[in-house]
Amino acid sequence: MQTLKQKHRPFCFSVKGQVKMLRLALTVTSMAFFIIAQAPEPYIVITGFEVAVIFFFIILYMLRLDRLIDCLFWPLLDIINSMVTAVFMIIISVLALIPETTTFIVLGGLFS
After folding, report:
1. Whole-Å CA distances, 104 to 31, 62, 100
2. What's the rounded Cα separation, in Å, for the pair 70 and 66?
3. 65-84 pLDDT, tens per residue?
4. Burial, 58: exposed, middle or buried (Cβ in 10 Å; 0-12, 13-18, 19+)?
């Protein structure tokens, strides 16, 4: 009897990969709006840090390094990263809505 082998699905075409790519695109868009509006530096630094972390996870999953480095529980790190990102982005979104901000800063806050 022939055993059925699971077909390997590339990370970019999986649902998890598509969500990560969408998250990266929205964070880059938010950072671009903050840069264009010359927002305060913490807005740009925090969104830039999030872009770097999301990009790190995308590269990690694309190269399948999560399968090689099994001493860490990668799904837990991914969940912790998502929770920290959500807290930072909520803070930035609320601060971006302060009355003395420009339109681009408000757009950056809405995209984050």
Report:
1. 10, 33, 12
2. 7
3. 878 888 888 788 888 888 88
4. middle
